[in-house]
Write a structure and sequence with these properties.
heterodimer, A: 355 residues, mainly alpha, Formate dehydrogenase/DMSO reductase fold, two-stranded parallel sheet, 4 strands, 3% strand, globular, B: 480 residues, two-stranded antiparallel ribbon, 68% helix, 6% strand, metal-binding (chain B), electron transport (chain B), transmembrane helix (chain B), heme (chain B), membrane (chain B)
């Protein structure tokens, strides 16, 4: 196999890893307004802290899949990286802002015991989860279906070119799919009221997501798909329905595995439909970026292959270990009472002379 | 302003901002790892309290370092796509390896460390923070390899057919002579910053009347540890910086000339002076008054007090002969902005020395158990927090501005590297968004750091951190 093909597969693996892992992080954050609302059993703040504690030890590592996918694209397909990142400028800017706000929000919301402080970071977490979940769907639909690219490999459209109806539908699909995935994760990882509400919610959002996803996959694969990509898309749809059924039956672990598999199969089906292009041109197919013409030299790809072969298994091992260490369900009583510094601590008090 | 200017400003702003958190992350993770290790060996609860206290401050800073790091990776493609096309074959590899080897290590084990108190065996838990630190150092290694290539390209050939630089020797990139001296310099500077962070906050608690008297000995220990770290790391910065100056003179003579605003070559045997401070014209061409040290520049540049130092005018002439007409340069002026290089170099050295001086004074004052009551110690603790931190910033401003007009020295100029398809409006939007967002986050971050620094270390609750003794339903020690 050509090394550029190997790297096409590896990039596909990295994006798949990113979406199956950070997908549920995004889902958990997106569900803050629904599952994070307090009731007589559990107040809203404790609920949100339970929700965050399920992803707490892992979300950061999950986000590195994106950094690795970006870096690997830069290294293995510099032209793909350059065309994509400069062409999708504004959506990427919004994604970056959202990811920054989300990261800071997750880390900072619990650090001051003050409702206004928390409310602001809650908004940041919701924005930072919903917006990337939506925009990644928009971006990937455009990558697979093609965008205007000229003979110099430059994107010639604008932001409205990217916001076409099919791409927006793709955004809704990733958003609802990730929300379902996140709800399944919460059902698996929590105990108490959140667990049951999350499971019911997963089924409800999931049914909507199923309709949108089938429509979207059908449009994308009708345009650019091949036999293999159709089969994978069909498997994704089947797996999703199975996941919803398993959730209904109370098999939370298997249901989560189901949404995990659904997202993986759907992403793989997109990459299979894309190959051998990496960014088709709608201006002229001759201008399309392909795995071959966008790639680095054989030497760089060889070096990178050895590094990837040697270190990816180690990364998978320790990331897997993290999930194992924190395998227990989280509920209200795991949440410490006095973790934060109160808002009215001696902040602002004049620093008197020492004694 | 054009897209090029805005893209440069955006890169400068986001990079300097990102680099406030990087040295703190590298330095402070080591300090926390050492504190936790001392506790594991001696079981003195003071060290456990300190490890948790500085650990929390570490996580506050790590969050922003990580979040702003994504912007760094993305903006190469967004704003500098022609650069990415030209050097992607070389530059992308260390970036990807950095993510695979370092970022996964840092963030995975930091998650384990934050949530793992009392949940994983003590020694393994302590190993997690060490792995976080190792991750930060590895990350620095790979990103500095990429940066050193921009300062002194090695291990590549120019391929006229593809119009790009192509990698032929990855090992040469990883062992670039600029890299081999930049890496220790940057790590030492980061450790100095981490030590200064601990010194600043601990010293403040020693000085402050409100700090419980029982806690003062604990903060004295931490302050001493911080001061010693600053001094040892400062020595490392000085030695590595000295070697770095000589290598820089060899590979980028214009940068050394610009560091002194030396326009005319000082020939062998005369010995070029180094000016500590100068009052002159704004463009740096005329000197009205200066305090100078004879022959010091010759020593900094060549290692001998009599060595020849090339001046800006000669180098400009030489570069014009070498590079004019080349397709990838498109410039006629090979001089960086002289006042920026001149003053940033002095700010780097001066702030670093001042930081070491404060640390030395603090170490002297903290001997025995005499109290610190003088108001001056308040200002010492505040200043020592910022002196090495800003020295780092000015060091980078000097390094990167001194390379201009090149983005890759001798190969590609900055103006040919910018994204051709990105409009001025788009870059303006992103620059404004990042500046505003970073500004707001800076206020929040500083406020939060101060709040936690003031609150001081949590009391020792005597609870066992050995998972074997604990019940599965316990609350998380650190959590969101």
């Amino acid at each position: 196999m050509e090394l550029s093909t190997v790297w096409f597969i590896l990039i596909a693996v990295l994006w798949t890893g990113y979406f199956v892992l950070e997908g549920f992080d995004f889902g958990v954050g997106s569900l803050f307004p629904v599952l994070g609302r307090g009731d007589e059993q559990l107040d809203g703040n404790t609920r949100k802290r339970v929700m965050l504690s399920t992803i707490g030890p892992v979300w950061d590592g999950n986000e590195v899949w994106l950094l690795t996918a970006g870096g690997a694209t830069f290294a293995a397909f510099p032209h793909w990286y350059a065309t994509l990142f400069s062409g999708f400028y504004l959506p990427l800017l919004i994604i970056l802002v959202a990811l920054i706000l989300r990261a800071v929000g997750i880390d900072y919301r619990g650090k001051v015991d003050d409702p206004v402080w928390r409310r602001r970071w809650d908004a940041a977490i919701v924005f930072g989860s919903v917006v990337p979940a939506f925009l990644w769907g928009v971006a990937f639909t455009n990558i697979v279906r093609g965008v205007p690219i000229d003979a110099d490999m430059e994107f010639t459209g604008n932001v409205f070119t990217l916001l076409n109806p099919v791409a927006l539908l793709g955004g809704l699909v990733t958003l609802t799919l990730f929300a379902t995935h996140g709800a399944m994760f919460l059902a698996l990882k929590t105990d108490g009221p959140i667990r049951h509400e999350a499971r019911a919610l997963a089924i409800r959002i999931g049914l909507g997501a199923a309709v949108l996803a089938v429509l979207w996959l059908a449009i994308v694969h009708a345009g650019t798909g091949n036999a293999a990509s159709w089969v994978l898309a069909g498997l994704a749809a089947g797996t999703f329905l199975a996941a919803l059924g398993l959730a209904r039956a109370g098999r939370e672990g298997w249901a989560f595995a189901g949404t995990f598999g659904t997202i993986a199969l759907a992403v793989v089906s997109l990459f299979v439909a894309l190959f051998p292009d990496v960014m088709p041109s709608t201006t002229d197919p001759a201008f399309s970026l392909t795995a071959a013409n966008a790639a680095s030299t054989g030497y760089t790809l060889t070096v990178m292959t050895w590094v990837a072969v040697a270190f990816t298994p180690i990364v998978l091992l320790y990331q897997g270990w993290t999930y194992w260490v924190f395998r227990k369900r989280v509920s209200g009583h795991h949440i410490p009472i006095d973790a934060a510094v109160p808002a009215d601590s001696d902040l602002g008090a004049p620093a008197g002379p020492g004694r | 302003m054009e897209a090029l200017e805005l893209a440069r400003w955006q890169f400068g702003i986001t990079t300097v901002y990102h680099y406030f958190f990087v040295p703190i992350t590298i330095g402070l993770s080591l300090m926390v790892a050492i504190m936790q290790s001392i506790w594991l060996r001696g079981r003195n609860p003071e060290w456990l309290r300190l490890a948790k206290f500085f650990g929390k401050l570490f996580t506050i800073n790590f969050a922003l370092g990580l979040a702003t790091g994504i912007v760094q990776e993305f903006q190469f493609g967004m704003n500098w796509s022609d650069y990415s096309r030209f050097v992607g074959d070389i530059f992308g590899a260390p970036l990807a390896i950095e993510a695979l080897l370092a970022f996964f290590l840092e963030s995975t084990f930091l998650g384990l460390w934050i949530f793992g108190w009392g949940r994983i065996p003590e020694k393994l838990h302590c190993a997690c923070i060490w792995l976080v630190h190792i991750g930060t150092v590895l990350s620095a290694y790979f990103i500095l390899s990429a940066n050193s290539f921009m300062q002194h390209p090695v291990g590549y050939v120019n391929n006229p057919e593809t119009g790009r630089a192509e990698l032929v020797d990855f090992w040469a990139v990883l062992t670039n002579k600029v890299q081999l001296v930049t890496f220790p310099h940057v790590i030492a500077a980061a450790l100095m910053t981490g030590g200064a962070f601990v010194l600043a906050i601990a010293l403040w608690h020693v000085w402050r009347a409100r700090t419980p008297a029982d806690d003062k000995p604990m903060y004295r220990k931490a302050a001493r540890m911080g001061a010693i770290t600053v001094l040892i790391a400062g020595l490392g910065v000085t030695v590595s910086g000295d070697i770095q100056g000589k290598i820089m003179t060899e590979v980028q003579p214009m940068k050394m000339a610009a560091a002194e605003a030396l326009y005319d070559t000082v020939p062998e045997g005369q010995g070029a002076p180094f000016s500590i401070i100068t009052v002159g014209s704004l463009d740096g061409t005329t000197e009205h008054w200066a305090v100078t040290v004879p022959k010091l520049l010759s020593y900094l540049a060549t290692g001998t007090f009599e060595g020849e130092v090339h001046g800006i005018n000669d180098l400009q002439e030489e570069y014009t002969l070498t590079y004019a007409g080349s397709e990838l340069t498109e410039v006629e002026d090979y001089r960086p902005v002289i006042p920026v290089t001149y003053w940033s170099f002095r700010a780097m050295v001066g702030l670093g020395i001042a930081g070491m001086a404060v640390a030395a004074a603090a170490l002297w004052a903290l001997r025995g158990d005499r109290p610190l009551t003088h108001r001056g110690w308040y200002w010492a603790s505040v200043s020592v927090l910022f002196l090495p931190l800003f020295a780092n910033s000015f060091g980078w401003i000097f390094t990167e501005m001194g390379r201009q007009p090149w983005v890759v020295f001798g190969l590609m100029t900055t103006q040919t590297a910018v994204s051709p398809g990105v409009s001025t409006g788009e870059v303006l939007t992103s620059m404004a968004v990042f500046t505003l967002l970073y500004g707001v986050l800076a206020v929040v971050e500083v406020g939060l750091t101060l709040r936690y620094a003031r609150a001081g270390a949590d009391p020792y609750d005597g609870a066992s951190l050995d998972p074997a003794d604990r019940d599965e339903d316990q609350a998380f020690v650190f959590s969101y």
